[in-house]
Amino acid sequence: MKDTDHGVCFGRIAAMLPVKDISKAHDFYANVLGFRKVFENGNPVGFMILKRDQAEVHLTLQPHHKAVNFNVAHLMVDNVDALHDVCQKAGLRIIKSLQDKDYGLRAFVFEDPDGNRIDVGQPI
User: Fold this and answer.
1) CATH of range 15-123; options 3.90.1200.10, 3.10.180.10, 3.40.50.1360, 3.40.630.10
2) β-strands 15-19, 36-41: how paired?
3) Distance (Å, rounded) from C-alpha 72 to C-alpha 89?
4) At residue 5, does pLDDT exceed 80?
5) b/e code 100-113 from CB counts within 10 Å (16+ = b)
6) Beta bridge partners of residue 109, listed in sequence order
7) Nearest-CA neighbor of 115 among 70, 51, 55, 56?
8) Closest listed residue to residue 28, CA positions, set 121, 113, 118
9) What's the CA dihedral at 55, 60, 63, 66 to 10 degrees?
């Protein structure tokens, strides 16, 4: 054990995405990307967990959210070209075009409807 292990085994970590309208955000992640809601909290709903395969995103209602100009999450997939096509067909803004990177990934960056930038990659 290293000094930095502290006797702890880390599990999953999920991106927390701020959204202005949680219902619209849910519709995007469910209907466009195929996620399913597994948890919600609040009345009205202010927090939601969505899952697809091994991926998990947490949506938090932030009505005054202002998007930042850097990636807030990184998503690994097994068919980056297919997801790129889905994003284009949905009319999403592509921040960085699909290309093979020198660090061994085929990748692109898109913005969700709230402006959250998600970096998508697949090992080459």
Assistant:
1) 3.10.180.10
2) unpaired
3) 22
4) no
5) eeeeebbbbbbbbb
6) 96, 119
7) 70
8) 113
9) -50
Q: Could you tell me which of 75, 74, 58 has the C-alpha nearest to residue 14?
A: 58
Report the residue count for the chain. Answer: 124
HEC states along the chain? CCCCCCCCCCCCCCEEEEECCHHHHHHHHHHHCCCEEEEEECCCCCEEEEEECCEEEEEEECCCCCCCCCEEEEEECCCHHHHHHHHHHCCCCEEEEEEECCCCEEEEEEECCCCCEEEEEEEC
The per-residue pLDDT for range 24-62, each reduced to its tens digit, is: 999 999 999 999 999 999 999 999 999 999 999 999 999
pTM > 0.70: yes
Terminal Cα-to-Cα distance of the chain (whole angstroms): 33
